[in-house]
Amino acid sequence: MSQSDLSHYIPRRLDAPSKFLFWELDVAAIGFVGLLGGVLAGFPICGLCLGGGLAFSYSKLKAGKHPGMMMHLLYWLSGLINPKALPHAHLRELDG
Asked: Is pLDDT larger for residue 63 or for residue 53?
């Protein structure tokens, strides 16, 4: 069998998280927000250090946890995420 025959190829990283360069997307977003805040405040080096520190801390916090942990934190801590697919908490009826 030749190397160019890929009819049996199965990808190994089918459900890998999305990445920005070599960081996961949510970790890179936290670092970028810190950098952007430092640039807007006039202290880009401090913003880079703050964003890097926050991104590093968040990556250590989410290690070994659910992949959607950022959405859970946004829902419970800030109230920014309001999923419409979830039923209201006072409804106790099951569909199906």
From this structure: 53
Residue 49 neighbours by CB distance under 10 Å? 14
| pTM value > 0.70 | no
Residue 45: which residues within 8 A CB-CB, separation 6 or more?
A: 38
What crossing angle do the helices spanning 44-61 and 25-41 adopt, rounded to 10°? 160
Does residue 34 contact residue 57 with C-beta atoms inside 8 Å?
A: no
Q: In this structure, are strands 19-20 and 23-24 parallel, antiparallel, or unpaired?
A: antiparallel
How does pLDDT run across 12-55, given as a tens digit for each residue? 777 777 788 888 888 999 999 999 999 999 999 999 999 999 99
The C-alpha atoms of residue 85 and residue 17 are separated, in whole angstroms, by 23
User: Rounded to whole angstroms, how far apart are CA atoms 14 and 27?
Assistant: 20
The span from the CA of 31 to the CA of 46, in Å, is 12
